[in-house]
Amino acid sequence: MNDQDLAALKERLEAVTAGDEEKDRNFKEETTSELSVVDNHPGDTGTELFEREKDTALHEHRKLARQDAEAALARIEAGTYGYCTVCGEEIKKERLFANPSASECIEHAGRGEDWMHRPVEEEVQRPFSATGFIDEAEDHTYFDAEDTWNTVARYGASDDGQPWTKSRGEEDSENMDGRLF
């Protein structure tokens, strides 16, 4: 990498570290717009919560980007910028221009993170297909829309003209007045 490219990348990294101090100061001082949320509509409270969470995520993103840029500037000063911290090979110039904070070559990028982590809920969820839930049995029968309708229709449907009873196969029960319930 030539000195002109290195100077351009260093300028971009310094721009990341220099900006947003005012936003960081304001972020720490911000609170909700009112002292009490007791009289607020739940939708207003939800909107304020969403905005606060969004601002927190953006603040964390800026903070991490600034830390990465500072680490890259330290590597420039040490003379190790542009070399992979894992294998020591030179990082391609295109990658550095796309991400000036990159410390690893593309082969090693992201391997230190838990990039294959899946949510714990997936361990207990049953598989789903286009026709319905897959049954746990060996024959892989499906509980599809027709089965759902048949299960629900046992308790009556609004268009069949029948009074609603506990179950289609049972006799209609009467209360003390003689009316069906």
UniProtKB/TrEMBL annotation:
| Keyword field | Metal-binding, Zinc, Zinc-finger
Q: Where are the zinc fingers (dksA C4-type)?
A: 84-108
Q: Where is the Zinc finger DksA/TraR C4-type domain?
A: 79-107
Q: Which InterPro entries match?
A: DnaK_N (IPR037187), YteA (IPR014240), Znf_DskA_TraR (IPR000962)
Gene3D superfamilies reported for this sequence: DksA, coiled-coil domain (1.20.120.910)
Q: Pfam families this protein is in?
A: zf-dskA_traR (PF01258)
Q: Does Ribonucleoprotein show up as a keyword for this record?
A: no
The record, for SUPFAM superfamilies, names: DnaK suppressor protein DksA, alpha-hairpin domain, Glucocorticoid receptor-like (DNA-binding domain)
Query: Care to name a GO molecular-function term for this sequence?
Result: zinc ion binding
Q: Which residues form the signal peptide?
A: none
Renumbered residue ranges of the record's region Disordered: 1-48, 155-181
Which NCBIfam families does this one have? bacill_yteA
Q: What is this protein called?
A: TraR/DksA family transcriptional regulator
